[in-house]
């Protein structure tokens, strides 16, 4: 700004004062899932470009918006299925790589695997040691700019790197992985695994709504009630996986709930009228309605003289001759 004579520019001065809010270098220690300042708006715009344009009406927008969400949900379900059921291609064959393939989704594992592969050609130089706490300078053999300090507590396997990749993206950087390899750490520590990047991120997530609109949907829509119950059962299933005790409690209570609901269903069936009675009531109702309909006499329509068949040209010519004769 000083170099280009813009020091007194009011708008640029305002941007400079809030530079810590929008310049990435000031936010490397803040988790953004790897997104930059404009990526979110750009991704949303590109997503809707295939569904709406400048000529789309409001009615068309509502319909296409629902289609857009449905396509996104279908894509997420497909990716979840592939993450859970498709095997990964291991490039190194190490236990660390295998552990990452077990816990991470397909896309996140690709990013983690790339960092793991790049962690091999690094020089680890010990700077200091204090008990179980170490500080290393990790430098690339090929890029002098790729050199950062790593602080590591080997007893708890808690560490930080000055590159702040984990703080910014939630994925371990190559520098920490290089120290793990040096110290024979063969699995990713649990505190370095974000649930949002795991295969089970969407499993058991139930959002409890207390808004009036949500309650109205449950009262009016059978589909909303079914979806709500499915989400609750899905969350219970995730708890049942954790221990046998939780499994026994869940199964026991669900059995009681099933018996109670089955009794309610049988009571509803017994309270309903037989089919013959329903038919009889419908016929009586129809008969009562017919008795209140006034009788109207409808006579035959008036008979009018028709013009008859159209005369041919020969007949018309004969008539003209008779007239002149």
Automatic annotation (TrEMBL):
Residue ranges the record marks as coiled coil: none
Subcellular location: Nucleus
Keywords for the protein's UniProt record, in alphabetical order: Metal-binding, Nucleus, Zinc, Zinc-finger
Residue ranges of every copy of the SWIM-type domain listed in the record: 148-184
Renumbered residue ranges of the record's region Disordered: 291-325
GO CC terms of this entry: nucleus
TM region(s), chain numbering: none
InterPro entries: FHY3/FAR1 (IPR031052), Znf_PMZ (IPR006564), Znf_SWIM (IPR007527)
GO MF, one annotated term: zinc ion binding
UniProt xrefs under PROSITE patterns: ZF_SWIM
GO biological process, one term: regulation of DNA-templated transcription
The protein's role, per its UniProt record: Putative transcription activator involved in regulating light control of development.
Entry's family note: Belongs to the FHY3/FAR1 family.
Protein name: Protein FAR1-RELATED SEQUENCE
Species assigned in the record: Corchorus capsularis (Jute)
């Amino acid at each position: 700004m000083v170099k280009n004579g813009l020091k007194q520019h009011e708008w640029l001065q305002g941007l400079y004062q809030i530079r810590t809010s929008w310049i990435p270098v000031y936010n490397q220690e803040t988790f953004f899932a790897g997104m930059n300042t404009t990526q979110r708006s750009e991704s949303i715009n590109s997503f809707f470009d295939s569904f709406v344009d400048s000529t789309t009406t409001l009615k068309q927008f509502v319909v296409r918006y629902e289609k857009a969400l449905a396509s996104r949900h279908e894509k997420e379900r497909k990716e979840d299925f592939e993450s859970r059921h498709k095997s990964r291609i291991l490039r190194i064959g190490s236990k660390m790589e295998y552990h990452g393939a077990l816990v991470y989704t397909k896309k996140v594992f690709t990013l983690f695997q790339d960092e793991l592969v790049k962690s091999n050609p690094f020089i680890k130089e010990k700077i200091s040691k204090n008990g179980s706490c170490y500080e290393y300078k990790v430098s690339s053999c090929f890029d002098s700019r790729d050199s950062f300090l790593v602080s590591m507590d080997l007893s708890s396997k808690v560490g930080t790197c000055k590159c702040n990749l984990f703080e910014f993206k939630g994925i371990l950087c190559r520098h920490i992985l290089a120290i793990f390899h040096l110290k024979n750490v063969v699995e990713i520590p649990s505190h370095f695994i974000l649930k949002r990047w795991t295969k089970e991120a969407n499993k058991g997530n139930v959002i409890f709504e207390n808004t009036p609109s949500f309650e109205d949907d449950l009262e009016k829509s059978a589909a909303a009630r079914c979806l709500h119950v499915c989400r609750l059962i899905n969350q219970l299933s995730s708890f049942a996986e954790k221990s046998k005790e939780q499994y026994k409690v869940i199964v026991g209570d669900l059995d009681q709930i099933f018996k109670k609901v089955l009794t309610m269903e049988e009571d509803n069936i017994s309270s309903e009228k037989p089919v013959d009675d329903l038919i009889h009531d419908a016929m009586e109702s129809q008969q009562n309605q017919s008795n209140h309909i006034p009788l109207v006499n409808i006579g035959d329509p008036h008979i009018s003289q028709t013009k008859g068949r159209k005369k041919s040209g020969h007949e018309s010519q004969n008539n003209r001759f008779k007239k002149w004769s």
